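I had to read the description of the data format several times before I understood it. For illustration, here is how one protein appears when written out as sequence plus structure tokens:
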Amino acid sequence: MDLGVEGLLLDAEKVVVIGWSTGGTLALSLGFNTLKRGINPPTATLAFYCPSSYEDECKSSVGLENFGSNMIVWRLPNFPEHSRDAFPSHYDLLEGVQEKPVSFDRITARKVKAYNSQITGYNVPPQNAAIGGWCDMSDPRSRLVLHMNCKGQALPILIEGLPPKSRISEKEADSYLQLEQPPLDKIIEISPRSQIERGNYHTPTYLIHSTTDDLVPLEQMRGTYEALEEKGVECGLSVVDDVPHLFDIYRDPDGRCWKAILKGYEFLYSHV
């Protein structure tokens, strides 16, 4: 591969991955899904504030105590900051599921390529007050992630996916607003902690989380870190006090967030 810089070489034997939020879950999944396909897993992984145990029960999630201890957290509504009143009576869920990549004008959130295209970024108009600092129902990708969380539809969509809007009728589209929850065995297949506990994960991993994350409880990440330790997987964990989910998009006046982030990157650097 030509990197366009003289003297800079790519070492395919040393590949690290980084992911934020559900992207962090995707990064962790490379540690076990690659093995199923006979591919070398990443050399090391850095995951920020991500779901890491999709079979967690309610007793480990803040604010869900009234649902009992036998209900899986991710089958229930999970509201990001200021999102409870965000939904209109009807909305287009599948606008963000298209056939091909698309470019967006980030100022006007206007599509500048073909309609039948995948939407690959959050594009909240500056004049709109973003929910949790990053989402707005006028933005197709925001709409999808808010639906997955607030309607308890994260697991069906992550496991079964959604069809492109162009392939189904408007009547069929409404049926995807409330999908059936997947069985436990399907959840375990995509859950990083379950795969760690089953001995299917060996990638050195660093985790970063917050004490006050409004989407993923810290207890979940601690449990995953403890599972890595128990299985002898090299790992690290940094916890930042009193900051929200996606804390690294906000100002960091005292440098606390940067110190945690730097430890994660130093961990990756030590493996390449």
